[in-house]
Amino acid sequence: MQSQMKRLSSKHRAVGVTPDQYPVVNKYLLQAIKENLGDKATPEVVAAWQAVLDLMAQTFIKREKELYAQLGEDKGFVPFSVAKKEQIASGPTYTFTLSRQDGKKVWPHIAGQYITIRIEKDGVLHNGHYVPVEPSDGNTYVITCRQGHDDQNTIISEEIIRNRAVGSTVSVSAPAGSFGLVKDAKHHLFISGGIGITFLMGMINELNKQGQSSSVTVVQCAQTEDRAAFADKLRNTLPKGQYLLLTKEQQISKNHLQDKFGPTTYKAVSMKIDPATYTPVSNNKTEYITLLFSFRSGPTP
């Protein structure tokens, strides 16, 4: 459980959770637990749950104090400006280049980490997590989002695409997250679906920056070619035969992947699959989806 709590602490820091908020959270968590347990919520059981929640809160607070200390003066959200806005694919899909309004350097990030963008809409604060698609240059973050995409970032993406022109302000907190490249992998296989390519591009571009494009294979799935963000860049960057674009007429299958694996291949998958509507080549949807998501790992043992 320590590893899960470590990842959660990183996200808590990203959205600005503070120690004084934990008693409030625990109060309502305990209330929900009591309601769920019903008659089984004896005083002894409730006391045990209270002790567990208190222990978890103290663990989070201790870890997050360390994370905040690493940030120096910028412990929360900082005003950034939209320096550039460009449509790169149908959907529509846009890239945004963000820079600090105070002219300072941006926080460094590791390929695969995410930044958190906060906007206020109708009096409510909304947070969205975006993975920078370009390696750190010290001056800007480049993120990509698609309008109308149904995920946790929908409100943020819709707002910045529709209403945030160049020069507009968004609030950004420091990069977070521990998902990234495996250093000792001899080859890297990236599989994406739809806008999921944006979560992988930072790692792909980092490997290219390091002169390791020959060790990269990308399988990109999109409804149509015009909706495939970064397709042209990937074709031009990767060696022949190491980039495969599949549309809804060419669904991914084992045949596309069976020669892409080795004992030191790093696999990363970023796609959203709905078992109720997606029809893979395999008749066993659950097995097929499990197969895809099991690739999100380090080198094969």
UniProtKB/TrEMBL annotation:
Transmembrane segments: none
Domain FAD-binding FR-type: 75-182
Listed Gene3D superfamilies: Globins (1.10.490.10), Nucleotide-binding domain of ferredoxin-NADP reductase (FNR) module (3.40.50.80), Translation factors (2.40.30.10)
Pfam families noted in UniProt: Globin
Key words, A-Z: Detoxification, Heme, Iron, Metal-binding, NAD, Oxygen transport, Transport
Globin domain boundaries: 1-65
A molecular function GO annotation: oxygen binding
EC code(s) of this entry: 1.14.12.17
Top-rank taxon, per record: Eukaryota
Catalytic activity of the protein: 2 nitric oxide + NADH + 2 O2 = 2 nitrate + NAD(+) + H(+); 2 nitric oxide + NADPH + 2 O2 = 2 nitrate + NADP(+) + H(+)
GO biological process, any: response to toxic substance
Protein family according to the UniProt entry: In the C-terminal section; belongs to the flavoprotein pyridine nucleotide cytochrome reductase family.
PANTHER family the UniProt entry points to: FLAVOHEMOPROTEIN
Name of the molecule in the record: nitric oxide dioxygenase
UniProt organism field: Rotaria sordida
